[in-house]
Model the fold of this input.
Amino acid sequence: MYSVQPVTRPVDGIVRIPGSKSITNRALVLAALSDGPVTLTRALFSDDTARMRECLSALGFTIVSDEAQETITVQGQGGTIPAEHAPLFVGNSGTTARFIAPLVALGQGTFTIDGVARMRERPIGDLVDALRSLGVSVDCPTGCPPLTIHAAGLHGGSAVIRADASSQFLSGLLLAAPRAQAPTKITIDGPFLSAPYVQMTVELVRQFGGEIIVSNDQREYTVSPITGGQGAEKTGLGGYPIEPDASSASYFFAAAAITGGRVRIEGLGINSLQGDTAFVDVLEKMGCTVLKAESFIEVQGGALRGITVDMNAISDTVMTLAAVAVFADGPTVIENVGHIRHKETDRLSATACELARLGVTVEEREGGLTIWPCEKTRPATIQTYDDHRMAMAFALIGLRNPGVTIANPECVAKTFPDYFDRLEALCDAGRD
Done:
């Protein structure tokens, strides 16, 4: 259990945030496919990135990790997969499952991808269908992991993929496609979720020497094959710095909003690859003052007002906004995020349940929430559903109101192992 101690003064400080999970896991895949060694600096060390490193090691890639220095060196193999057989355990890391599947399709052999019980409930059928249309033999009886890939190289061609359950299906294909034997064209069918994450993937692939042509409507992606010497060595990526995690930064920006304080995150600026930096724009609409520069973003809290917001593109910050909404002057309406029911837990249902436990009035809809203000919440132990974002977001409510306890705080290890230490460091100066 973690009992949150309220602050008596607004928080004020500069917070150092670990490296981005999204960028670290994408960069690990691209480094493995590069034409030589790549060292990731300021890399994230968490459960999710550990699962990716373990899978790459199981596939025969040489990886040297130094957690104290926050570096990971991957010996790229030029688009080949060293192992011919490997069981690959992804835990509850959706990014690992969805990125590893197209990666192993480049190889020669049989590879099985499996995870924890919750992972076996998380759909992956859209990605399986796309791989099959590219000629990959995949066994996936339930439409969820486990899945077995009988790899014989990725030949290129055309695939249509749905991206209304997860944009990571498309990202996984884009990461592997530059090492296919011929050009690959991927077309999106239906609604397109979390587009900024796909834009991040495209930019990373380009930085690692790949070529992707994106249609004007961002629904067609044509990927050219990389020839020898066009990987990391060509682009000079002996070292690749990882940005601070924008999703993780959202909790500290929210702490400024909730307490009327000021928080600056350095290393995260206006040129960030991460779409979740747009969370501060939501806070600005609620009444905060936001300062953006090339090397930092800063939020100053203000009188909070309720808003209506489509959070489809920044859905990992829904629960962060839910915590802020408790202290607004009117209802906050969150729309177009029905897909987060398929994350580590059903995040809409879980958020509504735990807000109600605190005495907050909330309406749950299929695709969103409406949250009414509740200046004085009641004491409660928050259930986290083994979901890191539940733990991190709901702790923020305890900065204003006493009696908030977080069950299973260890679940934050998925993406931010020392979250509570860093939150305490920010808040200590604001307590008597």
